[in-house]
Each structure stands twice: as structure tokens, then as C-alpha cells.
Amino acid sequence: MPQKKEDAISMIGTFAEFKETKNIDRTTLVGVLEESFRNVLAKMFGSDENFDVIVNPDKGDLEIYRNREVVADNEVEDPNKQIALTDAHAIDPDYEIGEEVSEPINFAKFGRRAILTLRQTLASKVLELEHDALYNKYKDCVGQVVSGEVYQVWKNEMLIVDDEGNELLLPKSEQIPGDFFRKGETVRAVVLRANNNPKIYLSRTSPDFLIRLLEAEVPEIADGLITIKRAARIPGERAKIAVESADDRIDPVGACVGVRGNRIHGIVRELRGENIDVINYTANESLFIQRSLAPAKISSLKLNTEERKAEVYLKPEEVSLAIGRGGMNIKLASMLTGYTIDVFREVENSQDEEDIYLDEFSDEIDQWVIDAIKALGLDTAKAVLNAPREMLVEKADLEESTVDEVLRILKAEFEDE
User: By the 8 A CB rule, do 289 and 337 touch?
Assistant: First the structure.
């Protein structure tokens, strides 16, 4: 008869409780329990090959048997796998040399250290199971919306707990600037990535978050009648999405916006007031760039498809619309189209006026400043004067005072004429 197994039974009970809270199947847990016992037995006896570990999850008990071969009293070479005939007879007088003795093992008799080692092994393997379960659940959910409750707010990230108690991280860099959550509040975000550490990172700034929200709000997208082709965001400020309809009778822009904007208002609130521009997608890259720069009206443009660059020419009053507040409109247009977009003022009769190469001003303007401006493709004075001041500051990485001085010198040259 097996001896008392109070410690083993309590361990199985612990596993049953863990299974209920962590949603790991009982079969897997029983396998881990058996493997953990075998690891400890191998450390104690040098090998676990001759041990039988029997787990009965229904009754909640566990039995361990050691199997040894009966040998003559003076021929025992491996006490773990062999037993002297005299010792075998103490168990059962009918045993003979060459037979196998199977005797129950009371694990608790091996002392507190062995039991502690077992518990540590179990805890380690259970943690691995928990990590694997979390990783396997979320690795295929990247880009999908999840919701959870705020459990802890730190300086650089926020701990979110989903409905199964799994811990998810929302870094500060992936939060919308206007986000402010308290403990206990519900948060929606997309799964950004799943590491097999495991750590599951969420994002509210990803374009995928905007796309998923639109898919949930616009039935035509869920039904496949409208496709979101591209999306670009400056989180909390402004976004642009390009949509296409598979049915000519459906206006994709109107369907996404809804009557009086009712379909998009909820999304704007979720994104902390982020203004959303919806435009019609087209494979014609010139037309797509024009649409992406709305509300500005373009006079003409030149495309360099190899370098993915576009030179856009507009009337002076349209330039500020194309650039937008803080350069957001042109930045989003570039993100949406995949082109580096440079805007230029259209000046009438400029071709009749004499132009001057920038290098001619090296006596008044530092050469490094000239080189920085030429790197933008602006080689002449007129080209610089026709370029927006904001573009010179941002893309040439020059101080505003430096740009103003350059413009003053160039203007003075033509005024003198």
C-alpha cells in the first residue's frame, strides 16, 4: 500500500486552484507535476528511469514507485537500480534473484529540502506555462483591439489587466498626448507586439488603432464593401485615411464620415479630439498626392518616382493650407503617400527674371548654410525665395533667425536690381 502523501496531495490541490485562475488545462498541469517530481528524483538518486510516477487528477493523489532488480547480497553495484536479496525478502519472502521489486516511495520522508526543491521546480515550470499561455494568446493578435482595466500607472508606462487577469503594458510613448487614465478605468488599444519574455505591449498611437476603430464603426468596412488602403496619424492632433469602395454606388468618404459626422465623432472622442481627414484612394500617384494635400489646391507637381520625391507648386495663398498648422498637413500627406513632398510658391513671370546661383552669395552667407539649403534641391536664389519659410527651417535644420537672414540677403539682391 502507498504511504501517506499529504504533501503531494496539497501540491495537486494547489495546481487545481492555479488551473482555475490561470486557465491552463489540467492535463498540461499534471504533466508538469510529474516532470517536476522526476527532476527532483533524478537529482536525489542520479536517475529517474526506474521510477513510476502516477498522478490521479480525479482523486487528487499521487503515487511514486521505485523499481529495482534483485541481486545476490554481495553484488549490489547500483543501490538505486539494484536491491540485495535479503532486503527484497524483507519486503516479500517470495522474491528471487533476477526479479523486479516495486516499492512505494514516500516523498515527504526525504526531508524539507527535497520538498522545497520540488515546490521551487513546480513554481518555475508553472510560471513558464503561464508565460507560454500569455504569449500564445497574444502573438496572433498583433494589430487587434483589446480592452482592459487600468491596474497601475507609472511614469513611463501603464499596467493593464485583461478580463482573464493577464498583464499588458501600455508605454507612455504609445499613449495619445491627451490620454489620462485612473486606476480602475477601462482602456482600449491595439496589440503592438508580443515578446516571448513574455511582455505584451499595447498602443493607442498606432495607425492600426484608427483603422480598427473605423472597422468597428462603419458596417460597409466590416462587410468588405469599403477598404481602408492607407492611414497616417499625428496622435491626438490630426489623421488622414485613404479609402476605396468596391461598389460604385457607395461613396466611401461619406460612408466613413456618416450623416453629420455621426460615425466619426465617437472615434474622434476616443482619440482625444484627433481631427480625421477621409480621402478617396487612387492608384494614380499624382492625383493621390493632390488629394492628400487637401484642402490646398495644387497648380502643378513634378514626381520623381525613383527617389519618391514630389515638388508641388501652388499659388501663394494656398501654401499655408498645404503646409498646415505646425507643418502637420504636409507631414501627414508625406506619410500617407510615401513621398517626400516639397512645396513651392508659384510666381508669375519668374522665368523672365534673372536668377542667381546660391554659391554666388558665399561672401555673405556661410558655406555650411548654403550646403544645407542646396541639399533640399534649392540651388538658386529664386528657388529659395519661392520655398516656404517653414520648410527651410524644418528640413534644412536651420535656426529661424538664420533662415530670415538668408531670405533678407536674397531679397535685397533683387530689390537692388
Answer: yes
Which phi and psi (to 5°) does residue 168 adopt?
A: -125, 150
Q: Is residue 154 a contact partner of residue 172, using CB atoms and an 8 Å limit?
A: no
E strand spans, 176-307: 186-195, 199-203, 226-234, 238-245, 275-280, 300-304
- What gap in Å lies between CA 381 and CA 415, rounded to an integer? 13
Under 8 Å CB-to-CB from 226, ≥6 apart: which residues?
218, 220, 243, 244, 245, 246, 250, 252, 255, 256
C-beta of residue 64 within 8 angstroms of C-beta of residue 51:
yes
Query: Does residue 170 sit in helix, strand or coil?
Result: strand
Per-residue pLDDT of the chain (417 residues; tens, 9 = 90+): 344 444 554 555 544 554 454 556 667 777 877 888 888 888 888 888 888 888 776 665 678 888 999 888 888 888 889 889 888 888 888 888 889 998 888 776 777 777 777 778 777 877 887 788 788 888 888 999 999 999 999 999 999 999 888 899 999 999 999 899 999 999 999 999 988 778 999 999 999 999 999 999 999 998 999 999 999 999 999 999 999 998 889 999 999 998 888 899 999 999 999 999 999 999 999 999 999 999 999 988 999 999 999 999 988 888 888 988 888 999 999 999 999 998 888 765 544 457 788 888 888 888 898 888 888 778 888 888 888 888 888 888 888 899 899 998 888 887 755
Q: Nearest Cα to 319, choosing from 377, 386, 406? A: 386
Q: How many CA atoms lie within 13 A of 76 on its CB side?
A: 15
CB neighbour list of residue 288: distance below 8 Å, 6 or more residues apart: 242, 281, 282, 337
Place of cell 516639397: 342
The Cα–Cα gap between 115 and 39 comes to 12
Instruction: Compute CA distances 246 → 9, 213, 227, 240, whole Å.
Output: 63, 20, 8, 20
One-letter amino acid at 91 equals: I
Euclidean distance between CA atoms 391 and 368, whole angstroms:
17
Gap between the Cα atoms of 84 and 92, Å rounded: 12
Nearest to 104 by CA among 21, 176, 8: 8
Give φ, ψ of 385 to 5 degrees.
-65, -30
